[in-house]
């Protein structure tokens, strides 16, 4: 049986991965918006639908904040039901939320309220006092941002209660039961790092994380359709696509509603293609942070060299590695040119198991190529 309890398993396991979009925009991309030519976004979405196990796919392309291409394929619900998904519909962005969380933390650093070298035990002494985080006196704010803290994932083999209102402290307690996977300083994906960063934001700002996101990011950037859900078993406001997860018997079930209290700053934001493009554009163009701090979010991951391959398209600027969010039932990605002028935002609702879901990033890369490199 597929229950609300089992539906939550893995939902918060959003991957904070860089989508390898080493595709350069066409030479005309640096020209005024009315001179840019892109391939059919509609065809790209239809091709995504044909890739298999996709319920619906929506995408939009922006240049200097202006919509220059859009597409929608598939349906809101399984088996062609529910009608088409508007290309401007809301969707879960998954681990793209982490970039927003990190941006707010780095704004606090820029304001002198925090240092990248501050130890976790000094910023949040309660996590050390209550033994919620091992070696909190060694872990820095930068370790949390770069996910090199070695703090275990709070998700384990046992499903989390979809109806329980988890506090961040509850999630830390769950993490503490799991063994440390790596030493401090070694890269290792853990949503727990970003739960802690959300706690730091709330402590230093004196506001809930959702309110601080609104104050610092969503309102200033005109992201009117974007919000951070905070309640258990919560769906998405307004028309949107539904994803489906597979149970142990191979039966698909609607995975639209989740317990938002286990997502938070690690992967909880709901947005639109327009709004995530606005955020990506502002970050790339230095309107959120000085370059010395923004490069922590736009540069290569720790220990990785900068990308030098130009991709199959000739021209300038190149697309930087894109941000990716994925969980049972959906994959979402936003790619941006290095200069922040061009964005390509895609959301896919899925109907397959985890192995099929993890194949979708390459399909999104193919979609980007078909839009910006149609001759290739």
Keywords:
376 residues; 8-stranded mixed sheet
Shape: globular
Structural class assignment:
alpha+beta
Uncertain runs with pLDDT below 50, 5 residues or more? 1-34
The biggest beta sheet, please?
8 strands, mixed
* Overall mean pLDDT: 87
- Written as H for each helix and E for each strand, in order along the chain, the element string is HEHEEEHHHHHHHEEHEHHEEEHH
The number of helices is: 14
- Gap from first CA to last CA: 47 Å
Give an overview in words.
Helix content is 32%, strand content 15%. The chain has helices at residues 4-7, 41-50, 96-110, 120-123, 125-129, 141-146, 168-176, 191-205, 209-218, 264-267, 273-284, 291-298, 354-357, 360-372, and strands at 17-19, 54-63, 66-74, 91-92, 244-246, 252-254, 270-271, 322-327, 330-336, 342-352. The strands form 2 sheets. Strands 1, 2, 3, 5, 6, 8, 9 and 10 form an 8-stranded mixed sheet that branches. A two-stranded antiparallel ribbon has the order 4-7. The longest helix is centred in the N-terminal third of the chain and has 15 residues, at 96-110. The N and C termini lie far apart (47 Å). The relative contact order is 0.23. Residues 1-34 have low confidence and may be disordered.
List the helices and strands and how they pair.
Layout lengths: L3 H4 L9 E3 L21 H10 L3 E10 L2 E9 L16 E2 L3 H15 L9 H4 L1 H5 L11 H6 L21 H9 L14 H15 L3 H10 L25 E3 L5 E3 L9 H4 L2 E2 L1 H12 L6 H8 L23 E6 L2 E7 L5 E11 L1 H4 L2 H13 L4
Parallel strand pairs: 5-10
Antiparallel strand pairs: 1-8, 2-3, 2-10, 4-7, 5-6, 8-9, 9-10
Helix pairs in contact: 2-14, 3-8, 7-8
